[in-house]
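re: ur question from yesterday

yeah so i grabbed the chain u mentioned. its 218 aa long if i counted rite. heres the sequnce exactly as i have it in my notes:
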Amino acid sequence: DAVGPLVVTAPPSFASHWLVPRLPRFAAAHPDVDLRLASTSDTVDGPREASVLDNLRTDPREARSNVAILYGKGRYPGFRVVPLFAPDYVPVCAPALVEAGLRSPDELPRFALIHDDTLSEVGWTAWLHKAGLDAQLARRGRHFSNAALALAATLDGQGVVLAPRPLVEERVRAGHLVIPFDLGLPSPSAYYLVMHERVARRPAPEAFERWLLQEAAQ
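ran it thru and got these structure tokens back, copy pasting raw so excuse formatting
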């Protein structure tokens, strides 16, 4: 088997808020693996995901192993597809907003809604409907082109965002973010580890898959 760097491509928000904080544990368990992390929004189901999948078709003569974490429906023919988790989306804000009175959904009209424009199936309109609130509230707020930017604005206290619960749990435990009311909206999509079958048989991707599944199960 080829021995070379393991290149992991992931969505920006997944990489920065879920994967990066856990990487020291992988490095401690597998110090011999040269893991290199890249992020791109092309890892979310859409017209540009083909570029990520093309990159996974590693030439068997190459020592480098390319794997990706994709957010979508898991339909990637010709690849090894390993389900990680399907998140639910919850309202998240900075502690200062709770101190300012955001303690129930009825208080939302007083605060700015933050929109992650990569979300098409899960968003404020659906959440407001589930909460029994006026869905017209979703027409206002601040829009950002990806989840990483939306979470950065939320951490800065600019408003309330709908975020995947697993991606914000560490920030909530640390006190940087708060889930002001625990009403979740299930996502029809999930995160998947995707790689070419011939890459999956290499030691580094095998080790990464085992470790990633253990982390996702916690």
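noticed a couple things. The longest strand covers residues 65-72. also The radius of gyration is 19 Å.
anyway ttyl
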